[in-house]
Every structure is written in C-alpha cells, then in structure tokens.
Amino acid sequence: MGRGEPRYAGRRLPRLALVGHIDAVYVNVDVATHMLANEMRLPGGLRFDPDLPHARCDFRLSTLLHPEVVRQFSQFPRRERSWPRRLRVKYQIGGTGAP
User: How many DSSP H helices and E strands does the chain contain?
Assistant: First the structure.
C-alpha cells in the first residue's frame, strides 16, 4: 500500500476492480455504492450481480444485564419514524441492492 492509502481493504478492493486487477469484490452493497459515488466520484463504477454469492444482514441487540437499553432501542423507531428514511435518502442506502 502506498503512502496515504487507506488500510481498510473495503476501500482498496473496489479500486483494484475498477482498474481490472480483480474481477469481483465482496463488500456491503450500500457501503460500496456510497463510496463509489461520494468518495471516488465514480457512481455506477461497479455493478452488483445478484447471481454471485452474497448475503443480506440484519442487526440485533441482546443483553441480560441491561434490559433498559433494549427498551430504549425498541422505542427509538417509534419516536423517530422519519429518521431511517432520511438516512436512506441522504446516504442512498437500502434500495434495490444494486449500486
């Protein structure tokens, strides 16, 4: 890696694919879409192929020691109904899964 080059492979792999050094990358589609459009200024530079192996992920919260945190977490979406939509629009995430 050159000087000033990010150490995070998720940033390096799309660059390698864009210049043809590798054929595919396995990264989060929303992250790659945002990075290509906003950091690299190459919107649509890579294409999501749903025929290749991929995974959808969910996030869960669980605790035995702090049930109040789970209650707060559960109440948040009811209090902030428009917040997830605003995030999806702002960061262009959660759409069709295609960059």
Answer: 4, 0
Q: What is the DSSP letter of 45?
A: S
pTM above 0.85, yes or no: no
Q: Is residue 80 part of a domain?
A: yes
Average pLDDT, rounded, for the chain? 83
Q: Domain span at residue 64? A: 9-51+58-91
Number of folded domains that form the chain: 1
Torsion of CA 26, 28, 31, 36, to 10 degrees: 30
Sign (positive/negative) of CA torsion 96, 38, 31, 80? negative
